[in-house]
Predict the 3D structure of the following.
Amino acid sequence: MLILGISAYYHDSAAALIRDGDILAAAQEERFTRKKHDPDFPANAIRFCLSEAGARASEIDRVVFYEKPFLKFERLIETYLAFAPRGFASFRKAMPLWIGEKLFQRDLLLRSLKEIDAGLADKAKLRFSEHHLSHAASAYYPSPFADAAVLTMDGVGEWATTSAAVGRGKDLTILREIHFPHSLGLLYSAFTYYTGFKVNSGEYKVMGLAPYGEPKYAQLIFDRLIDVKPDGSFRLDQDYFNYATGLTMTNARFDELFGGPPRRASDPLDQRHMDLAASVQAVTEEVVLRMTRALATESGASRNLCLAGGVALNCVANGKILRDGRFDEIFVQPAAGDAGGALGAALAAYYDEAPEGAAKSLLRPDAMKGSYLGPSYAQADVEARLRAVGAVFSVVDEESHLVEKTAAALAAGQAVGWHQGRMEFGPRALGNRSILGDPRSPTMQKALNLKVKYRESFRPFAPSVLREDVADWFELDVDSPYMLIVAPVKAERRRVMTQEEQALFGIDKLNVPRSDIPAVTHVDYSARVQTVHRETNPLYHALISRFKALTGCPVLVNTSFNVRGEPIVNTPEDAFRCFMGSEIEFLAVGRCVLHKDQQNEALKLDYKNAFELD
């Protein structure tokens, strides 16, 4: 059975294609349109999926949308009725869109599918999954577990904001839900908004900012904003929020409680903002731990946990869950947000219709194939594309030579663009569309932020480490292939700080080397670890292995190949433009090697101001 899954019309639209449960292709629309978090119908992603699988539209058995629009419309109406007359302005603004588009989404989907190919626009093929079931399925079915507890947390789907489920074999059963307006994701987004970052894209900045602060407001949040039960269930006091009916996340009562209006994006960050970030992070971790502990008891004998939904991208909380010890193994869907809903919708539909004897995948480390599910480019195509944009390059005849040249550039302290194989599905670059650097350099973190990524200087970078060496460098000895678990750097790799350094606070801590790998060690000695496996990415594994042979260090700095506000690069041309618009010094695309000092000066771009803050 060939099934196409689609997510669209909110943020991070995507498409995924599976055959009899096997994941063939998946990609976000933003990578093709170059519009970050693109919410539009994923026409380009669908065309890619069909092409990658060599499938005709007429061969698709099911097209599955990741949520149920009528239930979402019901929630909108009931919410405004419950809060009336508050929020009439936003109600009046939203209703024409909902009535004209969302309420008739089946027709809109069929029209959009027909524009791609009439063979897709068959009413009999079209199905609608539920939002949280799509998330849960995206985590459970690709996991290597025969049974697992499944926790899904996000802003909101139709009604659900949090759901607990149990997977056994091919069956996935939702046990309980928490409904809108009570949402852990929206609580975190409220503080994202209040600290001056964009909702639905800036939450990871709050997570990165948190270690610079102290959780001074955590008890205030527990006392006034959220009532949490021992099992992690909770309710939010809506007197402090505006998201249910208004056009902002918080209101004047929230401002009064926390000592002032929301920070404007252009305003400097101060210690108060860092303390607010630390506080909402601490509250989130406590709520999530209560949930997972209760779920561990409720799910019986299973010692496995699957996570999905936007809150599952909070890798600090994921690390706390792992170290809490209630579960032996954790699998986090790498595309945990709405993009992954496309994949989950397809998988949920397949296993719902699969015959009784159909078996769930138990592949190790998982069935996501490293999340390398996007487009790739043949060597001849790469060369033609680079010539067309005026790139100057040489071609190495063997991958081993490519590895040697790139490892030497990294060991020499250069920032390296690395464009290889199939593009990653999800928000993280995992070694195929990455900017790489030497983690031993005390200046690499700041240089990459300010001169390459053009983003806030406090933002941490992740280490890619050989799976076989991870326990020697980090307090972690499990697979973390998707950069979604934070772990402390090993004590013996840390640097003891002086009294003067310990007295520093806030972003002043940033420039103090804290370990043997300072470029990937956050101010609290933590790191967002990616374990690199020979089986899923042999070329990237070989590169890190060669870097280790040269330096003794089996770790590289790995950040996504893009600048602030830009989606991760897709094509060789995207890679070249980003190379020419930043201070990346060395670029490898396939077996093509490019040096910045050999390029045509006239092709340089001003990427620093090309994209708005994300």
Observations:
- The longest helix spans residues 271-298.
- The chain has a mean pLDDT of 93.
